[in-house]
Amino acid sequence: MTVRPLSCILVLLPLSLVACTSEETTPPNGDLECDVVIVGGGVGGLHTAFRLAPSLGDKVCLFEKEAQVGGRIKDISLDDSDPNAPRVGAGARRVMEGQTVLLDLATELGIQLETPPITQDLINARGGFAFSKEGLVNLYPGLTPDPGGDTETALYDKLRFGPERANAASYANFEAYVRAVAGDEGYEFLHDMSRFRADFKVPLDVAGYLDYLDEEWDVCCTPSYPIGGMSQFPLGMAAGATEKGAQIFTSDPVASIDRNADGGFDIVSSSHKAHADKVVIAVPPVGMDKIKGDVVDDIKAQQVYKDIVGVKVVTITQWWETAWYANIVNPNATENARVWRGWTTEHCLNFIEIPLEPYAAAANVTRSVYNDDPECSNIGKTLQTRETTLWKRL
Ligand SMILES: Cc1cc2nc3c(=O)[nH]c(=O)nc-3n(C[C@H](O)[C@H](O)[C@H](O)COP(=O)(O)OP(=O)(O)OC[C@H]3O[C@@H](n4cnc5c(N)ncnc54)[C@H](O)[C@@H]3O)c2cc1C
C-alpha cells in the first residue's frame, strides 16, 4: 500500500504565531485614550483583556500585529475556506490536568475537552526500539536502571534535589551541571528522551533552568484536547472581551512604547497613537526586538531579560488518506495498546504525534515536531522558505 499525505503544512513557530477580526471603532491614525493598553494578542494578552473588559470596557485597547489573534496557539485547517473544517494545532494542542487556570477557563468559555486514555510511546534511540523510555536505559553504558522503574525521573530528582544543587551557580551552564551530576551517559539519555532537546544544547543558566524544572516537571499528567482546537481559547476570550467593549486591533503592530509627562504611556502602532495609564506587554523577545521606546529599552537592559534564550520550533501537520498508523500497537500492552507518539533520536524529526482524541483522529491528521536542537531548527527554517512551493500543499 502506498501511503502518502493528502497535504502537509509546515509551520515555524519562532516562539510565536490566529482568528478574530477587530471592530474598528476608531478612525485609522486616530488617537485613543485607554486605561490599559495591551501589546500582543496571544493568550497572555487576551486573558488580560478578557479579565479587564468587564470593568473597563472600551478603555481596554489591545494591539496585535498579525491579522488574527492567538500567537503561538495556531490551529491549521486543511480547507481554509471552510470554517467548519477540522483544525489541528501547529502550536499548543493540549491542556494538562494540572493546568487548572486553563481548565476553569474552558468551563467558563464553554469549550469542550476530550481526554483520550494515555497510550504508548514508541521510542527509537541508539539503534534500539522500545515502548517506554525505561526499555532503552541498557543502551546507555554505565547508567544504572532505577529500581523504581523510572530512571529518567530518578535522574531529574538528582538534578533537582541532590546535594550538588547548592553549587549549581558554579557551573557554566545546564549541560555542564547535568554532565557533572548525572554523568555523560546520563546527560545523553536525558537529552535523547526529552521533547525539548535544545534545553540540553543551548547554554542555559543552571539556577534558572532548575527553577523552571521545579514548576514544570511535576505538572500532571493526563492531557485533554479542545474540540475545535486550542484556538477556541483565544477566540473565546477575544469574543468575550469585545462583547464587554474592549477594543482589539489586529494587523496593527506596536512600534514604540514611551513614558509620557503625565506619568502614563504613549503607544504608537501602525494605525493608532494611544495614551494609557498602564501598559501590559505580552510579546515574546522576538517581538520586543521590533519595538522602540524607553519602556522597552529599560526592560531589555535587565539581566533577567538578557538571559532569555529563544528556541525555534518546527511542526508539520499532515492529513492522510488512511489512518495507516492505527495498526502500530504495543503487542505486550494489555490495554490502550495503540501508539500515540513515535520518537527518534536518529535525525531531526523528533516525533510524530498521532492524535487519539476523536475530534482530530476523525480527520486522519498527524503532527510531526522537529528536534529543536539549533542545527535541526535551521533545517526547518530552510524548509519553511520552500513552504509555498513544496510544503504548503503537497
Ligand atoms: C509547538 C508548541 C507547542 C506547545 N504546546 C503547548 C501545549 O500543548 N499546551 C500549553 O499549554 N502550551 C503549549 N505551548 C506553549 C503556549 O503555546 C505558549 O505558552 C502560549 O501560546 C504563549 O502565549 P503568549 O500570549 O505569552 O505569547 P504569544 O502566543 O507568542 O503571543 C504574543 C503575541 O504578540 C504579538 N506581537 C508580537 N510583536 C508585536 C507587536 N510589536 N505589536 C503587536 N503584537 C505583537 C504576536 O503576533 C503574538 O500574537 C506550546 C508552544 C509551542 C510553540
Structure characterization notes:
Residues 14-27 and 388-394 have low confidence and may be disordered. This protein starts with a strand and ends with a helix. The radius of gyration is 23 Å and the shape is globular. It contains twelve helices and 18 strands. The protein is α+β, with helices and mostly antiparallel strands and 394 residues long. The strands form four sheets. The protein has a seven-stranded mixed sheet, with helices on one face. A six-stranded mixed sheet has the order 11-3-2-14-13-12. Strands 6-10-7 form a three-stranded antiparallel sheet, covered by helices on one side. Helix content is 29%, strand content 24%. It has a domain at 133-216. The chain has helices at residues 43-56, 100-109, 151-161, 174-193, 206-216, 232-243, 285-288, 294-300, 303-306, 358-361, 374-385, 387-391; strands at residues 5-13, 30-39, 60-63, 75-77, 87-89, 95-96, 113-114, 120-125, 128-130, 223-226, 247-249, 254-259, 265-269, 272-281, 313-320, 339-344, 349-353, 365-370. The structure holds flavin-adenine dinucleotide.
